[in-house]
Design a protein that fits this description.
alpha+beta; D-amino Acid Aminotransferase, Chain A, domain 1; D-amino Acid Aminotransferase, Chain A, domain 2; 2 domains; ten-stranded mixed beta sheet; six-stranded antiparallel beta sheet; 8 helices; 28% strand; globular; binds 4'-deoxy-4'-aminopyridoxal-5'-phosphate
Length: 292
């Protein structure tokens, strides 16, 4: 069965789905996106993903292609047509099609919207038990990382360096030695006094939806969580390091470049948070999960 994509009002086999060569998403990366997980038929944190998409569009002064209610109809239909039980839904909204010129096009230009879905189970428990290796890469991105823009070339280059080193992720480090996040996930450390630390939300990072849920789950469980920047040196000396993301869930990091984190085995607090995140997903309420 070919995957079915939603493209500007139509549902098409993915191989027949095309976008215009003068779409500004294609020419200027003038577009935003979201990815959410469907877990056993139920979307995870769907409302916050749509709210973040709306925020990304607003920050770029993009017109919304449709209301949140209409969007939800499309999302449900894409999940149904692709027979997704556990998988990811990808949605992208571009500013639209117009003759190539840097300024925004005519205000009547319709935003373009594409939605696809595929089966995917997220990061495996086996891998989490073993722990992930990460590499470090210089954070060379622009100053609006809070916007989930499709301008991902710096993330692509960082992730490629991870792939070439057979690592799971690349954590991104600024010129002054601060770890902002990772190429497609948020980065965390746990200090010697068991404080869980992650970069505060700001224009320096993408405010991860999983990050926010994990902060809540950690606090509910009685852990101390502090949102503050931390350095690569602190990460190297940390008791535990982990990553969070929509498909990453909570992933313990056991190696940074060629150096083990602590004793080199998956951190117990990170594994506990992973379990709590899984329980959270398992307990989602089908009746309200699509609410925005
Ligand atoms: N940072 C970046 C750069 C990302 O691409 C992602 C994945 N969307 C995240 C963090 C994690 O965000 P979320 O938990 O919303 O998937």
């Amino acid at each position: 069965m070919s995957h079915i994509a939603y493209v500007n009002g139509r549902y098409l086999p993915q191989r027949d789905a095309t976008v215009h060569i003068e779409d500004r998403g294609y020419q200027f990366a003038d577009g935003v996106y979201e990815v959410f997980l469907v877990w056993n038929g139920i979307p995870v944190d769907y409302g916050p993903h749509i709210v973040r998409l709306q925020r990304s569009m607003a920050e770029l002064r993009m017109r919304e292609p449709m209301s949140a209610g209409a969007m939800t109809v499309v999302m449900k239909e894409i999940v149904r047509r692709n027979r997704i039980t556990t998988g990811i839904v990808y949605m992208q909204v571009n500013r639209g099609v117009a003759p190539r010129a840097h300024p925004f096009p005519n205000a009547n230009t319709k935003p373009s919207m594409v939605v696809t879905a595929k089966a995917f189970a997220g990061s495996s428990d086996a891998m989490a038990e073993q722990g992930a290796k990460v590499v470090t890469a210089r954070d060379i991105r622009w100053e609006r990382r809070d916007i989930k823009s499709v301008g991902l070339l710096a993330n692509v280059l960082a992730r490629q360096s991870a792939s070439e080193a057979k690592a799971y992720e690349a954590i991104l480090v600024t010129a002054d030695g601060t770890v902002t996040e990772a190429s497609a996930s948020n980065a965390w450390i746990i200090t010697a006094d068991k404080t869980i630390v992650t970069h505060p939300t700001s224009n320096a990072i993408l405010g991860g939806i999983t990050r926010s849920t994990v902060i809540d789950l950690a606090r509910e469980a009685g852990y101390k969580v502090t949102e503050r920047p931390f350095t690569l040196d602190e990460a190297r000396a940390a008791k535990e390091v982990f990553l969070t993301g929509t498909t990453t869930f909570v992933m313990p990091v056991t190696q940074i470049d060629d150096q083990p984190v602590a004793n080199g085995s998956s951190g117990l607090i990170a594994l506990d948070l992973r379990k709590r995140y899984r329980n959270y997903m398992d307990a989602l309420d089908a009746a309200t999960a699509w609410n925005v």
